[in-house]
Model the fold of this input.
Amino acid sequence: MKKFRRSGRLVDLTNYLIHNPHQLISLTYFAERYDSAKSSISEDLAIIKEMFEARETGLLLTVAGASGGVKYIPTASLSEIKTFLTELCSKLEDPNRVLPGGYLYMMDIIGNPKWMNEIGRYFATMYANKKVDVIMTMATKGIPLAYAVATYMNVPVCIVRHEHRITEGSLVSINYVSGSTKRIQTMSLAKRSLKEGSNVLIIDDFMKAGGTIKGMINLVDEFQSHVVGIGVLVEADHVEERLVDTYTSMTRLSEVNTKEKLVKVELGNFFEKLSQIKED
Done:
């Protein structure tokens, strides 16, 4: 392989780390990749680490020993996140978003790769210290968000559906009670989607009473796996009975007046929780 100058190595090293987050990579691999001494690679990584931390775009962890190496953990600064969430709240307050039943039209946000990319990075920042094996979401609107988070955590996505798809093979199905309509519904997950004992991070776009998320929690139990976190983009406030107690929400829909087309959206508990994590 062509031998690169340090400037070239730094560019390619940074690019490689960013595209392989949460993966332990040995110094030997990089030394062979660039035909360089491990000491030179270590110096390069020290420069990258300094820049990541100065810009608060990530952490570069070093693991000592024969099986050690480096691992890139994507992060974001509190100031960046607060600015973004404030802008998101303002965007969601557009009165033209009001839909029957107190829901909001959000497909322009969910369908925007740039917005999803940022939201995915922020959720990955929130759960960076958790051992996550897979992201779970409910079809269909939660899928873009789940994949955005999974990209930054470098884990697969499993998709829970209402309907059976023959291409997914045998399924595990459960009945659950919809929190908003109180109707009994069915959700299913392909048996091959989730290994027993997996640590699952549930991600969804909207939560009202939490019936769907409660159903996914019960479905995870069917696979003898564990829910390590629940993240939602928007939670509805003033719900009579919340079926899920522990969750992280980026924004909170505090008021919807369908008659006057009035929408009020505020910060959820995301920023407060992340601030506490960073302090600890």
